Amino acid sequence: MNDMTLEAWMQAVLDEVECALQQWVPADAPAGLGEAMRYGVLDGGKRLRPLLVMAACEAVGGQRPAALRAAAAVELIHAYSLVHDDLPCMDNDVLRRGKPTVHVRYGQAQAMLAGDAMQALAFEVLTPQDDSIAPALQARLCALLARAAGHAGMAGGQAIDLASVGRPLDEAALRDMHRRKTGALLQGSVLMGAACGQLDATALQGLSDYGAALGLAFQVVDDILDVTQESHTLGKTAGKDLNDNKPTYVSVLGLEAARRHAVELRDQAHAALHRCGLPGTARLAALADKVVDRDS
């Protein structure tokens, strides 16, 4: 796979992850729960987090079977978070990945349960009962994912987001919110892929810094697209943050300054990869470029 173009590599990885999710997300969970879970996670999204897991694993020469499980697990966590974020008690969204949100399709209670079940399944996927992943690596991957998703990461960032509606935030406070809400899971994806191999402290710090910069860049671009693109392009409701009076990088910095900041963060991500000293980071660098250059 090393000789593939980026697009061919991405498609191969996406096919592999989709196949794994098809296999591991149960269709036969009781009372329609499996159908709601599969609706929430299959056949949609950019799958950026799994791509980061697999690219980081390849950069460190890691164990691909473990990385594939990590890639599926992080996507399950991401999908569960979207299902819950879209609920009326939080962001109250009706469109996600170009189709009705899970609670619109299946009802609020089923959507809540589907998200709960996907969160639990992520850790089940990381802890197979055979000997395919060493217990120490299982524990490391679970710890990285839990910390990225929990109170210090994604859930904490969402709590700040909900508490900030209608309140002015300065750039430092906005950065802290998005470092947790969005950045932590993207950075965690890089670190989970890296954990599947061996690397020294310098390389690990470089990959961590790369993940942090890319995570913020993703959110800055998300905020830009929210005010510059249409809903059919985004696959979700455009302009919703502005309508809900939520602070964003565009509302705090202005549109052009936000665009410049996204480029600055991409450059920081590239510089962090250079500090790693690893020879196989070209795909990670290309993914940072795609994050900033995307239009949806």
UniProtKB/TrEMBL annotation:
Keyword Repeat in record: no
Keyword annotations from UniProtKB, A to Z: Isoprene biosynthesis, Magnesium, Metal-binding, Transferase
Keyword check for Metal-binding: yes
Gene3D superfamilies (UniProt xref): Farnesyl Diphosphate Synthase
InterPro entries: Isoprenoid_synthase_dom_sf, Polyprenyl_synt, Polyprenyl_synt_CS, Prenyl_diphosphate_synthase
EC category: transferase
Names of required cofactors: Mg(2+)
EC number(s) stated in the UniProt entry for this protein: 2.5.1.10
GO molecular function terms attached to this record: (2E,6E)-farnesyl diphosphate synthase activity
A Pfam family hit: polyprenyl_synt
Signal sequence interval, chain numbering: none
Domain of life: Bacteria
Family the entry assigns: Belongs to the FPP/GGPP synthase family.
NCBIfam families reported in the protein's UniProt record: FPPsyn
PANTHER family attached to this UniProt entry: FARNESYL DIPHOSPHATE SYNTHASE
Protein name per Swiss-Prot or TrEMBL: Farnesyl diphosphate synthase
Native organism: Azohydromonas lata
Lineage: Bacteria, Pseudomonadati, Pseudomonadota, Betaproteobacteria, Burkholderiales
